[in-house]
Amino acid sequence: xxxxxxxxxxxxxxxxxxxxxxxxxxxxxxxxxxxxxxxxxxxxxxxxxxxxxxxxxxxxxxxxxxxxxxxxxxxxxxxxxxxxxxxxxxxxxxxxxxxxxxxxxxxxxxxxxxxxxxxxxxxxxxxxxxxxxxxxxxxxxxxxxxxxxxxxxxxxxxxxxxxxxxxx
Length: 168
Hints:
Layout (H helix, E strand, L loop, with lengths): L3 E4 L7 H7 L5 E5 L2 H13 L8 E4 L15 E6 L8 H11 L3 E13 L4 E3 L3 E4 L1 H10 L2 E5 L11 E7 L4
Parallel strand pairs: 1-2, 1-4, 2-3, 4-5, 5-7
Antiparallel strand pairs: 5-9, 6-7, 8-9
């Protein structure tokens, strides 16, 4: 009985597949766009997924401290095409608080656009070197593993798996 948090779930373009797979009430989606969440709720009804009772939340505080999920723990956390729109300080905040909603076997996946150094792409895009994420993981007791070979993103973003460091 897995529980999943989909950060930046939007209109459930990808989330609908997880909702179908998961048991009732085990999908949580959050987005900063009230319009996207309103559409997602309509989409759940249109697709006959209402009985799955997904939790769809607008991030009203627009931060990455996960206070909307205080006391909740997730097996899987996904941030697909989210870090590509975040500045370094926001990603740092994400890494600082992600452990609060993970147990020792939770897995967090995120995608990013790779660059030799941090840089802006167009008006709203950002790229990062893998070393940026490695330093954050080390600082916050997490370990990373690239898994882009198993994941083919339509826009060439790379996928990374994050777990808590196991203390022996």
